[in-house]
TrEMBL record, chain A:
InterPro entries: Papain-like_cys_pep_sf, Transglutaminase-like
Pfam families: Transglut_core (PF01841)
Transglutaminase-like domain span: 173-238
UniProt name for this protein: Transglutaminase family protein
Organism ancestry: Bacteria, Pseudomonadati, Bacteroidota, Flavobacteriia, Flavobacteriales
The organism of origin for this protein: Zunongwangia pacifica
TrEMBL record, chain B:
Residue ranges annotated for the Circularly permuted ATP-grasp type domain, each copy included: 86-464
InterPro entries: ATP-dep_Glu-Cys_Ligase-2, CP_ATPgrasp_2, UCP005522
Protein name: Circularly permuted type 2 ATP-grasp protein
Organism encoding this protein: Zunongwangia pacifica
Record-linked Pfam families: CP_ATPgrasp_2
Lineage of producing organism: Bacteria, Pseudomonadati, Bacteroidota, Flavobacteriia, Flavobacteriales
Organism domain of life: Bacteria
Amino acid sequence: MALNYVIKYAATNVYENLVGEALWQFLIAPLNSGSQQIISSEFRNSLQIPVEKSINGYGFETFRIHPKKSFTSIDFEAEFHLIKDHINPFEKTNASNLEDEFSQLNSLNFKVEHATFLKSTALTKLPKWHEIDFIYSEEVSIFENMKNLNLWIFDGFSFKTDVTDVDTDLDIILEEKQGVCQDFTHLFCAIARSHNIPARYVSGYLHQGNGYFGDSQMHAWAEVFIPGCGWIGFDPTNNLIAAENHIKVAHGKDYSDCPPIKGIVYTSGTNQTTYSVEVNAQQNAQQ
Amino acid sequence: MKLNTNQPSFSSYQRDNHFYDEIFSENNEVKEVYKTLLNLYSEHTVQDFARLNEKAKASFFNQGITFQVYGEHETKEKIFPFDLFPRIIDHKEWSHIERGVLQRSKALNHFLWDIYHDKKILRQGIVPLDLINSSANYLDQMQGLNPPGGIYNHISGTDLIKHSDGKYYVLEDNIRCPSGVSYVICNRTALKRALFGVFNHYQTHTVTDYAENLLEIMESVKPRGVDVPTCVVITPGIYNSAYYEHSYLAKAMGVELVEGRDLFVENDFVYMRTINGAQKVDVIYRRIDDVFMDPLEFRPDSTLGVPGLLAAYKLGNVCLVNAPGTGVADDKAIYTYMPQIIKYYLGEEPILNNVHTYHCNRPDELKYVLENIENLVIKPVDEAGGYGISIGNKLTKEEIEKVKTVIKENPRKYIAQPIMSLSVHATYIEDSQSFEPRHVDLRTFCLLGKDKSFVLKGGLTRVALKKGNLIVNSSQGGGSKDTWVLKK
């Protein structure tokens, strides 16, 4: 059964002093591919500045706003309507032979093919000194291992806002054992990559119908590439396999490749930013 | 002609047999191409040279052809010392160099295309994947992108030295923003001003055609659908040490010199602010490093770049010269694979020698390295800026043992190369008021465009002015010489 989604994104930026020049780039539009079909997408701002559509460095759609007159506050509002197909991630995961699966990971061709998502980055670097007691086993499939990793993070780390930042290193997360979805996703990617499993950081929305952690802002989870199955999403913050409740916007090596908003603002004084995200779903009766 | 030590200007010239001398052969004979020049120079007195040297210096200073030396307390504006004695390269020797640097540029371009597309050379294990993965200069954003005309390294600066065996060796290829070409042209002008008459006795190729060729190359890689492209040069600004060169090139090409704030992107096209309104820009010769180019994509605090530039480039609406992400191909580790890279893409043997490299991860080569450390330079493969380099003949016995242990612990991390000696060339030395031998190298400039290439017939001969010094960098007290390439 497919789901019909309405996603509302709103942000307000207020500045103490007049802003002479500014430019924002938003990476918030749901991806129009795979299991997601975009019906409509709208993006408005309180200054009625025409919105430009562009792409980021990895080809994902962005919105840009470049005010040409000064202002002290601006509101952004986006609304997306989409249909998300029902996904059963288990469908494609049970066929392959274990030995084949693991030997593929070690082939040079595979490593070249997936080099981008096997490299460690500043945000997904595992500290050498820290022992990680997650047990990786070649007795079970990669999919099972990733499920175990999802659970290991979910059980061992607690969700807590305002203790970490978007660029907090993994050694602090491992030490404090707390953080938010970005941090857990970085940790997931780092451990998966350390076992030669390609992993990418996904930015998107979570439908929070059942009280999952999504922070009423944008959400983050990981996708790993399993030979023979393709990319499968794991959400370590909620110990879930990404399915119809996860609406993808973009992916990258880590957070720094896909922050929802990038801005260049020339002003003095302080500023205040508030966001909100609302995800509403209804069963699509026609399908 | 024998070396006449009674001539005032060459009175203290002492040939050192350890090095290749560009002017005097082993039995102190003046080499054929320099005979006329030396005769002409011996007509001048010591005082003449002292005066000409002062004049040349003043002329550089007055024209503002300077660079910055960043010191602890203050930044100094200095001239790049110019030497009165030109280097001469005969026709035959030059054609070898020219074919060699062009071959390297083309091979590097193929290599860049490959590692940003199919990655065949990595899949076949000819170049190790780890070298690319560990490079901070590899830009994932460039994957799958087809630059206009298929060109990445439009401008390459290959550095050569002549070893004691009399052969040229490549030290490195610079394919990010190689600088120095403006000095080549200024040196020619300065020498013509100082000693015009000497040019009548030699048929020397011009070097002033560089700018027009650069412009043609830039125009050849215009984006699709553009008829007559608007080209610009973008500079980080007046505080950059190569600002003179940026302004020279823009002026000589007849195009605008801009800074980041002079450009903006709208609907994925790049425009330049002019007094007549916005003008679309099609080809940008950028003298800004990758990471400062676009604050929306790379360093967000960069004020030197243009927000949205990378997206405009990715969508094919503007061409960047050189392409972003070329830096992955000009580092030390890739250099050691250049012979293989040339063979792989061009099916040719390398024309110019690489300095031979021993990879310590190969057991037989490791054995050789451990047995011959005193004749080798040991370099870590992954460190930049000269860190961790050991020069074998400068080590004590204890230090040699220490280096051996370090290599054995992690052989993968080290490469070794023979100790190269730079050739020497007669250079005017102010203190002794005479010509003395000093070490030199040669930077060449090669341009690649769509179905077009050009190698500047000349180059920047850099000279280490301090006696015995092997470092020719301008920041380390180096100077430069006019470099003549003879027509026949």
